[in-house]
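Please decode residue identities from the backbone states below.
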């Protein structure tokens, strides 16, 4: 007779406590990251890390959430790398964030208060003299020298007394290494004159341009007053002139009003939007037509060397896209490109591919079809295999020609499974800014605009140029445009979902 002994619960308990210890360490590390991000001026990221710490503690410490542990890493990846960047970018669209409004209010105030006028009559060179474990700061022309200093950034007020250096001064590279600590020093001589750093090798009396007042305004040396305007994110003079740098503030729908109210923005944006839709549609239709045509040809049983042709036609898909784009940029070069050399030799034509807006757009569509047709061809070759041969034979026996068989039998049967892929291709090309930036950079420019906008720009490259290549770097305006793009792409994604569901329903009913 076999006796069943109770298993020892000690190993299971030890494993559970070890797991809780690991969870505790992860939570503590995440809380530390949240605190560090908050101190670094990134409260949103800090809150995200705080929420993540709470979720880890709840899910991995309670058995009730055991099943959730398997999908939790995916949820975290979606939240951190997709949801948060999208929400943050959209949030920027409701602010005045730009190269003129990068700072916080406190930091912008510090920058303005740090401005001063150097008195050239008091400017004189200084030297750092080694003295044991410390350093002495000397003004050789005035015959003044300080007590030994650490120069670790903690000293601010230094008193100088008469004296001469007893050693050779430090080299310039050693002085530069202590530049931050030197800029924090204020030197006071026997005559009471206060000197501050005015360069890598000089100190001088500096008169501040502005001084703070109790009511929050700044009083200028000439009597002018700067008042903070938190509606626009700038200090303003009494005449209403903004003084840079500014700070980031919430401006509501102002960026959206600029998009729709300013002709210098609305006009080019409407043109770019229409071109984006046309570019995405022509690329989708062109890739589908070329890919399907080549797939039908390769399916012809009497075609010799089909394997070689198939390999050659797939090559554009195997070459990295950025290499192909750069190659086409050279082929379409207006002066030395092979395309113009051939056209000139045959027809006497030298098209201006990069300076004429219509030709530049045509070139972009041609290059994009070249890059995308192999994908469509591979899909079509698979879908064509699923078309019943009996249907084609029956139509042929009734006297239908090859073209009629294709358009009445083959095409209607491959379009339903193709439809979601076509919508996805349209959505991809709607944001295909890599092609635009590498091939034309959005050029040629649209004349009469107040923002950088080109005739070959799509919405994605248009937003990129506003945010990163414009001198003003209008991140807020770019965020507003991104929000509009997000709405359009979301509508396309929903249409893709509906198309897939209807296609699945039709296939289910057909069976």
């Amino acid at each position: 007779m076999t006796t069943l002994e109770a298993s020892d619960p000690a190993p299971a308990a030890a494993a559970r406590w070890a797991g809780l210890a690991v969870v505790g360490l992860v939570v503590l590390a995440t809380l530390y990251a949240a605190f560090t991000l908050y101190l670094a001026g990134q409260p949103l990221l800090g809150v995200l890390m705080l929420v993540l710490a709470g979720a880890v503690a709840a899910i991995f410490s309670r058995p009730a959430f055991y099943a959730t542990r398997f999908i939790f890493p995916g949820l975290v990846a979606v939240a951190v790398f997709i949801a948060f960047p999208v929400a943050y970018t959209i949030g920027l669209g409701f602010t005045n964030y730009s190269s003129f409004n990068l700072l916080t209010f406190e930091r912008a105030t510090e920058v303005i208060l740090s401005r001063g006028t150097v008195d050239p009559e008091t400017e004189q060179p200084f030297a750092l003299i080694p003295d044991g474990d410390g350093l002495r700061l000397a003004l050789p022309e005035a015959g003044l020298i300080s007590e030994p200093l650490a120069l670790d950034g903690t000293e601010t007020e230094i008193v100088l007394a008469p004296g001469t250096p007893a050693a050779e001064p430090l080299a310039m590279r050693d002085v530069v290494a202590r530049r931050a600590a030197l800029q924090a020093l204020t030197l006071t001589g026997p005559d009471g004159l206060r000197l501050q750093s005015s360069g890598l090798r000089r100190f001088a009396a500096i008169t501040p341009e502005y001084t703070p007042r109790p009511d929050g305004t700044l009083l200028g040396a000439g009597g002018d007053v700067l008042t903070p305007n938190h509606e626009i994110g700038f200090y303003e003079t009494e005449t209403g002139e903004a003084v840079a740098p500014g700070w980031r503030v919430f401006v509501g729908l102002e960026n959206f009003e600029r998009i729709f109210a300013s002709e210098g923005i609305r006009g080019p944006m409407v043109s770019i939007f229409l071109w984006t839709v046309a570019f995405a549609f022509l690329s989708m239709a062109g890739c589908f037509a070329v890919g399907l045509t080549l797939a039908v040809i390769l399916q012809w049983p009497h075609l010799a060397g089909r394997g070689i042709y198939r390999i050659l036609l797939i090559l554009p898909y195997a070459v990295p896209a950025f290499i192909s784009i750069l190659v086409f940029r050279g082929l379409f070069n207006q002066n030395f490109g092979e395309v113009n050399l051939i056209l000139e030799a045959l027809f006497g034509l030298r098209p201006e591919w990069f300076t004429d807006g219509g030709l530049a757009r045509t070139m972009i569509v041609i290059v994009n079809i070249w890059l995308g047709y192999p994908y469509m061809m591979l899909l079509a070759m698979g879908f064509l295999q699923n078309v019943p041969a009996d249907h084609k034979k029956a139509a042929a026996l009734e006297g239908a020609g090859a073209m009629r068989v294709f358009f009445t039998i083959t095409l209607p049967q491959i379009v339903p499974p193709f439809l979601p892929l076509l919508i996805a291709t349209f959505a991809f090309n709607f944001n295909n800014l890599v092609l635009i930036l590498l091939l034309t950079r959005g050029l040629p420019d649209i004349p009469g605009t107040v923002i950088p906008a080109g005739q070959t720009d799509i919405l994605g490259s248009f937003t990129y140029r506003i945010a990163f290549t414009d001198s003003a770097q209008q991140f807020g305006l770019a965020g507003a445009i991104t929000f509009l793009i997000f709405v359009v792409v979301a509508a396309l994604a929903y249409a893709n979902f509906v198309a897939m569901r209807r296609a699945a329903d039709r296939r289910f009913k057909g069976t």
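Observation: The chain has four domains: 12-70, 105-110+210-247, 116-208, 258-510.
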